[in-house]
Write a structure and sequence with these properties.
Blueprint: E1 3-5, E2 25-26, H1 28-36, H2 38-46, H3 55-70, H4 80-97, H5 108-128, E3 138-146, E4 152-162, E5 168-174, H6 181-202, E6 208-213, E7 218-222, H7 226-249
The structure holds iron/sulfur cluster.
Iron/sulfur cluster (SF4) is lined by residues 37, 39-40, 254-256, 259-260, 263, 265-266, 269, 271.
Length: 309
């Protein structure tokens, strides 16, 4: 089994993970898209349709950026005030990288209220963890593994903690409230996906998967085992076979649900009376090319609804 992990050096010019050399690649976000609605997956991966930035997604990106930078500070200085002090400069950095974010707010009052929400989430973080007692092994770690099936799994891990004894904890920040059961299952699938990648990379099953919900101040913890991760691998391979069938047949069916309320593509979705654009021509790699892209689960599109609210 070929496996690898990679660090920031593998980011491409957009700050996203460099595309793998293989055509067969999947991230947890895109896997989640296909499970939610095959047509949504098509719009994002095959048609590569742009989506407007959202205030919720941008808030998630900002909070993630602050929490990542917070650990640049010496342990004793990782205080709530230090986190708040990072908000404005990180926001300015994000806007410099993605100028359309500046248009998210009608006026300064709206933007101020949005900033206050982000600051409140950061304050809540300090009620859940004490960052002065943590030394993460990695932050925003780009990971990748190639399964025996040839499928490349890839994604970003918000934070990886490694104990002196070698035990691994995968930590993911969510900027919404803890989801109901069905969405928690989806969030845990994402964490098992990362655990599988690390297991296939280093041969060690992570000891703990930890979801930190900054919207309502809850923590969900799960201890995976090998059987869990083997089941996850089977599920991912089956999901990929379903994606390949859809690619071959061109049958990307909409699957309407209450999640449609957050979908940027309602206007061209048959469920809402719209007509999808013609499928791009088939390529050697499939109908639209090789990558599980262009909307990978990386900043600035982290922690996007609908899972979170
Ligand atoms: S509106 Fe709903 S059914 Fe249509 S593509 Fe989006 S998620 Fe799928």
């Amino acid at each position: 089994m070929q496996v690898e992990t990679s660090g920031a050096a593998d980011f491409d010019a957009d700050g996203e993970p460099a595309d793998p050399p293989l055509a067969r690649a999947l991230s947890p976000s895109r896997a989640g898209d296909f499970m939610t609605c095959p047509l949504l997956y098509r719009f994002r991966v095959i048609d590569r349709l742009p989506e407007p930035p959202s205030a919720a997604a941008a808030r998630g990106t900002l909070v993630h950026a602050v929490l990542e930078r917070l650990f640049d500070e010496p342990a004793a200085r990782r205080t709530p005030q230090a986190a708040r002090d990072l908000v404005q400069p990180q926001w300015e950095r994000l806007v410099a990288e993605e100028p359309e974010l500046a248009g998210l707010f009608g006026d300064d009052e709206q933007r101020g209220a949005w900033m206050s929400e982000a600051a409140a989430m950061l304050d809540r973080y300090f009620t859940l963890e004490d960052p002065t007692r943590l030394e993460p092994a990695h932050r925003e770690l780009s990971v990748r593994a190639v399964l025996e099936s040839g499928l490349t799994l890839r994604g970003y891990i918000d934070r990886l903690d490694v104990a002196a004894t070698g035990e691994i904890r995968i930590v993911d920040y969510k900027t919404g409230s803890a989801p109901r059961e069905e969405f928690e299952a989806r969030a845990l699938f994402q964490m098992r996906f990362y655990a599988l990648v690390l297991w296939r990379t280093g041969g060690t099953v992570p000891r703990l998967l930890q979801l930190i919900y900054l919207g309502n101040g809850e923590i969900v913890r799960y201890a995976p085992d090998e059987a869990d991760l083997l089941a996850t691998e089977r599920k991912i391979n089956a999901l990929w076979r379903a994606i390949e069938r859809a690619r071959s047949s061109g049958d990307w069916r909409p699957r309407p649900s209450r999640l449609c309320a957050w979908c940027a593509h309602q206007a061209i979705c048959p469920t809402f009376g719209g007509t999808p654009p013609p499928l791009p021509p088939l390529s050697a790699d499939g109908p639209a090319g090789p990558q599980d892209s262009p909307q990978p689960e990386v900043p600035p599109q982290k922690d996007i609804p609908p899972q979170e609210s």
